[in-house]
Amino acid sequence: MREAQFVKRNTDKWRDIEQNPTKDPDELTNRFVELTDDLSYARTFYPNSNVTRYLNGLAAQMHRGLMQNRRDDRSRFITFWKYELPLLFRQSHRLLAVSAGIFLIACILGWVSAAHDNTFVRLILGDQYVNMTLENIKKGDPLGVYNSRDQASMFVQITLNNIYVSFRTFIFGLFASFGTMAMLFYNGVMLGSFQYFFYERGLLLESVLKIWIHGTLEISAIVIAGCAGLTVGNSLLFPGTYSRLESFKRGVKQGLKIAIGLVPIFITAGFLESFITRLTLPPIISGGIILISAFFIIWYFILYPILLNRKRTP
Predict the structure, then answer these.
(1) pLDDT tens, position by position, 60-96
(2) Hey, where are the domains in the chain?
(3) Plot region of 126 (φ>0 → left; ψ -120 to 50 → alpha; else → beta)
(4) Any idea what the Cα angle at residue 20 is, between residues 17 and 23, rounded to 5°?
(5) Please, which residues have CB within 8 angstroms of residue 224's CB and are 6 or more apart in sequence?
(6) Would the pTM of this model clear 0.85, i.e. be above it?
(7) φ, ψ dihedrals at 159, nearest 5°
(8) Burial of residue 190, with CB atoms counted within 10 A of its CB: 0-12 exposed, 13-18 middle, 19 or more buried
(9) Which residues contact 302 (CB under 8 A, 6 or more apart)?
(10) How many of the other CB atoms lie within 10 Å of CB of 308?
(11) Would the keyword Protease be found if you checked this record's keyword annotation (predicted)?
């Protein structure tokens, strides 16, 4: 191909690259690949021409853009946790209150049901768990279930299961929020009946100081996952000024980010349950861990988003 023909064929593309820069990483990469292909061709057939020098300079400029974008991608991780997720969560505070309300009502119903029906706890928790716990109570170790497995395998299994429950609660929001509400209700009833089981045997305080070492983060994260699921469901039910499809896309994106933001919390809860809960700790230490966990949840998911939003919107 003659040089003039090569230039004529690609001039519009080069002009567009030069005059209409983009920050989209995929588009930037595609442009850079095409440009370097043209540069390689020019170096092969027109090594000393002006077009080769022009393409070399343009490619160098795009390469700097790619490197800058890569640095931005690294800082993106920090930006997500420090600004994007909290600001996103500020928009979901009302749904968080709904999720927490459903869960709390279910806990109360679970407690009351267990108090009035001796078979209810077995129905919810299963005969095997109840019989094992009763046997542990006789041995003087009512929460010995946390000492029954290897720590590392227990950590992996519990963490994966918690993440699975979280994403299932989120995904069930696709059923117009009713699936998420059902998941919240089931987990709330289970918690309420579980705590009454120990209360009935005079072990409520002991169970709280042990179970809530990891349960504070774990239960809070399930409620927050419920908020993510309700976000998806409500985007279908109440699209507002958007089309239903556009509202759904936005709801899924927002809910998914919230669900992903819970993964480190479930990992921490799994670590506490596997390595710390099994220990016999003084009440002041157990209570301290519970209070620190509760403070973190309240600060990061409620107070910090409010403060951050006020700074952005005077």
Answers:
(1) 777 766 665 554 555 667 888 888 888 888 888 999 9
(2) 3-81, 91-312
(3) left
(4) 90
(5) 96, 99, 258, 262, 301
(6) no
(7) -60, -45
(8) middle
(9) 93, 96
(10) 16
(11) no
